[in-house]
Amino acid sequence: MTGLLLLLTLSANPSPRELACSLADEVGPRLSGSEGDAAAVRWAVEKMKQLGLANVHTEPVTVPHWVRGEERAELTAPISRQLAVTALGGSVATPDGGVEAEVLRVTTLEQLKALPVDQVKGRIVFYDKVMERLPSGKGYGDTVDVRRSGAAEAARKGAVASLIRTVGTGDARLPHTGGMRYEPDVPRIPGGALSIPDAELLRRTLERGPARLKLVLSPRALPDAESANVIGEVTGTAKPDEVVLLGAHLDAWDLGDGALDDAAGVAICLDVAQKLVGAPPKRTVRVVLFANEENGLRGARTYAQAHAGELQKHVAAIESDSGAGLASGVLYAVGPGAEKQLAPLRAPLAKLKVTAPKAGDAGGADTTQLPGVPQLELVQDRSRYFDIHHSADDTCDKIRADELEQASAVTLLVARHVANLEGDLGRLPQKSAPGK
């Protein structure tokens, strides 16, 4: 009897949390172009095969390869204090020996743009924009502009460096990284993020009078590297050439293990697929684990180009990139009149304590790169997500098994329904896909 129980245990499907922790723990940081990125591709191929997916393969993607180096920030006047800082993804380095200058505090890009050049030139601009904690995560979208564009806008007016208050909601003394963008018509200056406690210290110091800060960052941009999208399928029984795409991104920033961002999403996709293997739907369910979502979206764009001829047969795309929190709703963006196809989901979703599907700005950074493809997205609780997002604290202990199980169950319900529809969800109007 003991042997039988052991056999049953070994043959049991892994839970969503086990899948997420396998990627986060066994691979860890996996920024595009790194050794961890290559290890993640190997992990995904092996895991898909273990779970019984068909047509498991990789599709090459050329990705940027950026590495961080030394990171130091120090208040030098009126007090001396080391600050917790990290380089933003894609930042250039400071000059040898660093840069030291007076700090100029602003709260928004608009406030900086309104200042005359002589108030900005030669200074380190400090964007002290506070992110609001909301279950929807909307505060992130309202705040992230200073991370993306802060350095470029500061450089336009002659600043020597740019620092932001971490775009996040926690109080740990850990800075959060994330992608930034330079503009072709302005000089490139280094950009970094301070932990929230250190941003608060800098603010208090500036309220008392002028302050100077020394910043040392030594990141490097290396030649582009080879990575891959990893794909596996549950082949449809009646319409195998029509596709319901389940997407998540395989890469993660280098500071943490990428547990919530996005091992949790990878786990949801793989869990749904393994549960469909034994009872395939009419249409093919294709899992795509995209490369390079965090700092380039090249995986999604490469997939869109490589599969342009079959995108008309992509009935829907469902992206999982919202962490591991409980699902409370489902958003959709579908063709005109196609919303009636989702009405039968109302009752089964209610049993999972999820509201009826509603129209909205559905789709993640990767799946919205697929022109015309209808989008579906879970509304998940992100109240705690941005406490650890893009930081060293993004580790598997933050994932609650019951919450991730529920999010996966909702995704399975939606994916199975769409994959078995008699009709389809139409097509979305053609427009340029947004970046992250």
Keywords:
436 residues; alpha/beta; Aminopeptidase; Glucose Oxidase, domain 1; 8-stranded mixed sheet; 16 strands; 30% helix; elongated
Chain-wise SSE layout:
Elements lengths: L1 H10 L4 H11 L8 H16 L3 E14 L3 E7 L3 E3 L1 E3 L11 E8 L2 H5 L10 E4 L10 H6 L1 H12 L4 E5 L25 E4 L1 H13 L3 E6 L2 E15 L4 E11 L9 H19 L5 E8 L7 H9 L7 E6 L7 E7 L12 H6 L6 E2 L15 E6 L4 H4 L12 H19 L17
Parallel strand pairs: 5-6, 6-7, 7-8, 11-12, 11-13, 13-16, 14-15
Antiparallel strand pairs: 1-10, 2-3, 2-9, 4-8, 5-9, 10-12, 14-16
Helix pairs in contact: 2-8, 8-12
CATH-defined superfamily of the largest domain:
Zn peptidases
Assigned CATH class of the largest domain: Alpha Beta
- CATH architecture of the largest domain, by name, is 3-Layer(aba) Sandwich
Report the helical percentage. 25-40%
Order of helices and strands: HHHEEEEEHEHHEEHEEEHEHEEHEEHH
From the alpha-carbon coordinates, what is the Rg to the nearest angstrom?
Answer: 23 Å
Helix segment tally: 12
Arrangement of strands in the largest sheet: 1-10-12-11-13-16-14-15
Into which percentage range does the β-strand content fall? 25-35%
Main β sheet profile? 8 strands, mixed
